[in-house]
Amino acid sequence: MPDATDRRILGLLQANARTTNAEIAREVEMAPSAILERIKKLEQKGLVTGYEARLAPKKLGLGLTAFVFVRAEEKGTAKVGARLAALEEVQEVHQVAGEDCYLVKLRVRDTDDLARLLGAVKSIPGIQGTRTTIVLGTLKETAQISLTHLTDAAEGDA
C-alpha cells in the first residue's frame, strides 16, 4: 500500500502525466532525485502501469460510443474475450457475472459503422448473442482512480 507521499505523487501523475519530477518535488517538498526513485519504485510495484494522452473521440470522428453485452458459449470464452479485445474499435472488454459473459465498450463513427462492427463481433466463433446500448451523452468518464480511501493505517493490512 502506498504511503502518504506516494499517494500524493500518484495523484499528481494521474492528474497530469506530463508533470515533471521537479514540479512534483516542489509540490511534495522533496528532492527531484528522490521523486525519480519513488516513481521508479511505483512503476516496479505495478502501481503505475503506463502513461498516455487522452484524445477527444468526437474530434477524431468517433462520435458514437456503445456498450455491448456479449453472451458466449462456456467453452472457449477466453478465446472469445481475446478476439473481442483484438478489435481496434474496442476500448474495454470486461468479463462479467450474470446472463452475459462480457461487457464491451467501443467507439465508432456512426450507426453504419456500429452495424459493421456488430457483424464482426457476431461472427466470432462461440458468440451466442449480443445486446447493444448506444450512449446518448456522457456525464463522467475517467480512467483516474480515487486515492482518498487509502490510508497509512491500511498499510499493515496489505
List low-pLDDT spans: 154-158
What is the fold-level CATH name, i.e. the topology of the largest domain?
Alpha-Beta Plaits
Overall CATH architecture of the largest domain: 2-Layer Sandwich
Give the helix tally.
5
Describe the protein:
- The chain is an alpha+beta fold and 158 residues long.
- The chain has two domains: 4-52, Winged helix-like DNA-binding domain superfamily/Winged helix DNA-binding domain (Arc Repressor Mutant, subunit A, Orthogonal Bundle), CATH 1.10.10; 58-134, Alpha-Beta Plaits.
- The protein has helices at 4-15, 21-28, 32-44, 77-86, 111-122; strands at residues 64-72, 90-95, 102-108, 127-134.
- It has a four-stranded antiparallel sheet with strand order 2-3-1-4, with helices on one face.
- Strand 2 (90-95) and strand 3 (102-108) form a beta hairpin.
- Helix 2 (21-28) packs across helix 3 (32-44).
- The longest helix is centred in the N-terminal third of the chain and has 13 residues, at 32-44.
- Mean pLDDT is 92; it is low at 154-158.
Keywords:
Arc Repressor Mutant, subunit A, 35% helix, disordered C terminus, alpha+beta, 158 residues, 5 helices
Brief account:
The chain has 158 residues and is α+β, with helices and mostly antiparallel strands. It is built from five helices and four strands. Helix 2 (21-28) packs across helix 3.
Task: Annotate the secondary structure layout.
Elements lengths: L3 H12 L5 H8 L3 H13 L19 E9 L4 H10 L3 E6 L6 E7 L2 H12 L4 E8 L24
Antiparallel strand pairs: 1-3, 1-4, 2-3
Helix pairs in contact: 2-3
